[in-house]
Amino acid sequence: MRGGLAVLLCLEALAAVGGTARATFSSRWVTRDADTTSRLSRPRRETQKDDEAAAHKLGSPILKRSPDITKAPLTKSEQLLRIDDHDFTMRPGFGGPAIPVGVDVQVESIDSISEVDMDFTMTLYLRHYWKDERLSFPSTTNQSMTFDGRLVKKIWVPDMFFVHSKRSFIHDTTTDNVMLRVYPDGKVLYSLRVTVTAMCNMDFSRFPLDTQTCSLEIESYAYTEDDLMLYWKKGNDSLKTDERISLSQFLIQKFHTTTKLAFYSSTGWYNRLYINFTLRRHIFFFLLQTYFPATLMVMLSWVSFWIDRRAVPARVPLGITTVLTMSTIITGVNASMPRVSYIKAVDIYLWVSFVFVFLSVLEYAAVNYLTTVQERKERKIRDKLPCTCGLAHPRPMMMDTSYSDADVNTTGTYGMPENGDKQERILVHLALADERTSSRRKNSRGYISMWIDTHAIDKYSRLIFPGAYILFNIIYWSIYS
What we know:
By secondary structure, the protein is α+β, with helices and mostly antiparallel strands. It has helices spanning 2-41, 44-58, 77-80, 149-152, 284-301, 312-335, 345-384, 405-414, 422-434, 438-480; strands spanning 99-114, 119-131, 145-147, 160-163, 165-170, 178-182, 187-199, 211-220, 228-232, 239-241, 250-264, 268-281. Strands 1, 2, 3, 5, 6, 7, 9 and 10 form an eight-stranded mixed β-sheet that branches.
């Protein structure tokens, strides 16, 4: 009995141990399933972070990553330059000597030059150089720092402006064209791209054979020479120009710089920098548009000297047309020029040409008047002659014996025009034959001389007008060219 009881006790102990083991295994299995479920339910990114953390704990060299340097804390430029520690409303070295500010300019383009408004438009790069110890910063590499226009508003910069400017602006496409460069020792380079329209006092007394000199003036607005010393950084080499600069009407002869002092009665003396450039006008355009047409009109007016004086419908419209054309040329030239109170070189040429054209019209008026007077005297002589109806070829016996054949021929070709009618020539011969007295001979000589003067006006005009105009051109071009 005791043996059976011991066996039962052993079986119960084994059953208890088995139940405990099954419970432990079941609890472990449930825990593992819960962990798996939680891992599947969490986002993939968090799971990856846990794996990386576990890998770092294990010290795996494969899964190690370098730190992100872009997220490392850096010192701000304002803190590095100690902008908040200084008052930049005051100039550098306030209370001491004047701060030197060097300037250099690179001219990008000369956009336009207007004679009517007497101004020019220029685009340039304006650079300032000065030293502000308040902006110095420690640097092991001695490299500069470059900023855009946002920092310019927080520090002191020279207050430059363009004297006698009408319009100016800083380019802002695609952002403000402003650059600030600061060096470790406090030296500053301030550059900006600006377009300015400034006044240019032009002298048109030799227009269009003129040479104009314009200047762009730079000056500090608030600081006198006691506070700011403005100068060209490299002298005349401080001015650079683009080799591709060209103008339609002008040839750029020279660029140079100068420095002067400007005095204002209420504020004092200021340093002023000058950018001077000399322009010479191209003459070829005006030769084609003004001088050559005017010369042609004058030469066209001379054509009337070779037209028969009795061709009134031909000579009168020709003279009027040339006069009106010259008036149009003069009006067109003056429309594109300012209303100056002095005479220009082109005005002298055009008005002299206009006078020549006008004199050609007056010449024909004189010829026509003398021809009319001559015809009246001829009509009086015809009224005194007997009827010569049907007389085609009069015989020499009808002439006075005192006139030889040579006299008749001479009178026929000397007293009458070359293209005169044969019958009119015969009537003149008959009139000379009837007038025997000395008084009548004087009247006939005056009649012949009238023919000579009327014909000679056109003849002499053919030489005098071209000769005088050629002489005028020689004198004109020798003076103005």
